[in-house]
Amino acid sequence: MAQPQVPQFFGLIPTGHAPILTPTNAPTPTSLVYTIPVVQSRPFSHIVVFLVPGVELPPDTAASVYISLPSPGPSEPTFKFLGGIGPGKESAIFKISGLSNGNSSHEVDMDAPESSPAGDITIGISIEPASQVSAQMASLSASNSQALVVAAKPQQKPDTLVLAQRIIKNAFNFLASFSGNVAGGIEVVPLKAFEEWWRKFEGKVRNDPGFLERDGD
């Protein structure tokens, strides 16, 4: 039994664009390649991939979706797994902006200004065993969850003593310029200067509540 032709299986649309893109290449009967030019006048940040209505994948298979982003220099395309679609999940939306091309720390932002590097985005869709696609999706989900945990880790706040020292330092630096000597050589600071410091300090706390928690002068 001959395998169905992949180009009839899938639809792909960059968000905000129309019509449905047609494949540029079909390397094998079970794989399909799309090329999407990056045009700064028509930015997009996501792509939609879906199974064409009325089409069914072969039993026990699903479709893996891969992406290769434009590179700042000549290099072989490197494909990154985006996710999968198949029975029970016939469509998916994948975020494109901000992804690394896999060869370096270079990132492509479809919503960036005109000066951003342009090129072609390559999307690969491959029919693979459902178990293999599920394993890749589980690995991707675990990796994303770990990244979110790291990004959300709260910064350690300074203790009360450190905060008190920073408040005193702030007051001392402000009031030092108002000090003067009275009879007997006693150094004093006018009460008005303290009131002025407190007014400014209180305003800064309102505008930037965390400024005392940041290390620095």
TrEMBL record:
It holds the Pfam family Hikeshi-like_C. It comes from the Eukaryota. This is Uncharacterized protein. Coiled coil: none annotated. Belongs to the OPI10 family. GO terms for molecular function: nuclear import signal receptor activity. GO terms for cellular component: cytosol; nucleus. Residues 159-214 form the Hikeshi-like C-terminal domain. It comes from Glarea lozoyensis (strain ATCC 20868 / MF5171). GO terms for biological process: protein import into nucleus. Residues 13-143 form the Hikeshi-like N-terminal domain.
